[in-house]
Amino acid sequence: MPLLTHQAQADMKACTLEKDLANLKTVRNLVFTLGRKLTNLRNMTNPLLNTHVLEAIRVFTLKRNFTDIRNVTNLTRVAHILE
After folding, report:
1. Would the pTM of this model clear 0.70, i.e. be above it?
2. 6 to each of 14, 16, 18, 22, 72, how far by Cα in Å?
3. What does each C-alpha distance from 60 to 28, 33, 66, 69, 75 come to in angstroms?
4. What is the pLDDT of residue 1?
């Protein structure tokens, strides 16, 4: 017997989808914000930070993985560092 009924599983999937769609909007906004900040920063003095920023953007532009909370967290952290 499954731990959750089929209805409970369906409810969880629907809830997760709503959260994913909300995250998608948040991630798009973060990517646009990062793009603007990178354009404004002509010379980044910290090459390690530059690597992290480029990697965060690469993950979102190549994989389009908007449901991975770790990536959202990393992108948010980078955005805060750049502020």
Report:
1. no
2. 12, 15, 19, 25, 30
3. 9, 13, 7, 12, 9
4. 44
> Running DSSP on this structure, what letter comes out for residue 68?
-
60 burial (CB, 10 Å; 0-12 / 13-18 / 19+) is buried
Give the residue extent of every domain in the chain: 24-82
pLDDT of residue 42: 47
Return the amino acid letter for 81.
I
82: nearest Cα among 27, 46, 29, 25:
46
Those residues of the chain that have pLDDT short of 70 are: 1-28, 30-54, 56-83
